[in-house]
């Protein structure tokens, strides 16, 4: 378990960062008054998400591998980290849905029908609900984490000396 301490720590940090991001979105009105902009601005979450993944991989390199990490070691660490982030995703989504912004789903359902994105409220409800978001966030967290790791490790890995 000691060898997973860094991944677990950063998965918890990632979950906290996600919750803070959602509070900021709500305070900015993206879950209510400015919901039309949510679709676009929520994608900015990729910036801190990538940053946290890179910081976690650098932490693993520095504090577990004593500054020398291979691409394979970093990739494995990132896959494990992505797994833990994905494991926390349903809980994180539950807090977002039922504590931070319980009005988000009703607002986005109403607005998506008003603008014709969905023809009926039932169709919108089938997409915008806790279960769907929990499943999608879990899958996306893992896939995005692995892709981010695969790219980041090109730059973070220790280069062999000549």
TrEMBL record:
Which keywords, in A-to-Z order, does the entry hold? Membrane, Transmembrane, Transmembrane helix
Signal peptide (from-to) = none
Give coiled-coil spans as residue ranges. none
Would the keyword Phosphoprotein turn up in this protein's UniProt record?
A: no
- Mind telling me which residue stretches traverse the membrane in this protein? 12-31, 37-57, 78-100, 133-156
Task: Tell me if Membrane is a UniProt keyword of this record.
Answer: yes
| Annotated InterPro entries | DUF4199
The name under which this protein is listed is DUF4199 domain-containing protein
Q: Which organism is it from?
A: Pedobacter flavus
């Amino acid at each position: 378990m000691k060898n997973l301490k860094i991944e677990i720590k950063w998965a918890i940090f990632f979950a906290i960062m996600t919750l803070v991001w959602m509070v900021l979105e709500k305070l900015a009105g993206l879950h209510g008054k400015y919901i039309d902009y949510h679709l676009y601005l929520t994608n900015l979450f990729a910036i801190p998400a990538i940053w946290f993944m890179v910081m976690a991989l650098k932490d693993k390199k520095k504090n577990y591998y004593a500054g020398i990490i291979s691409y394979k070691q970093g990739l494995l660490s990132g896959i494990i980290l992505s797994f833990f982030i994905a494991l926390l995703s349903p809980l994180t989504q539950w807090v977002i849905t039922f504590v931070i912004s319980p009005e988000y789903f009703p607002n986005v359902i109403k607005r998506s029908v008003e603008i014709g994105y969905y023809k009926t409220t039932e169709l919108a409800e089938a997409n915008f609900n806790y279960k769907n978001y929990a499943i999608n966030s879990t899958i996306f967290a893992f896939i995005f984490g692995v892709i981010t790791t695969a790219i980041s490790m090109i730059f973070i890995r220790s280069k062999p000396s000549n």
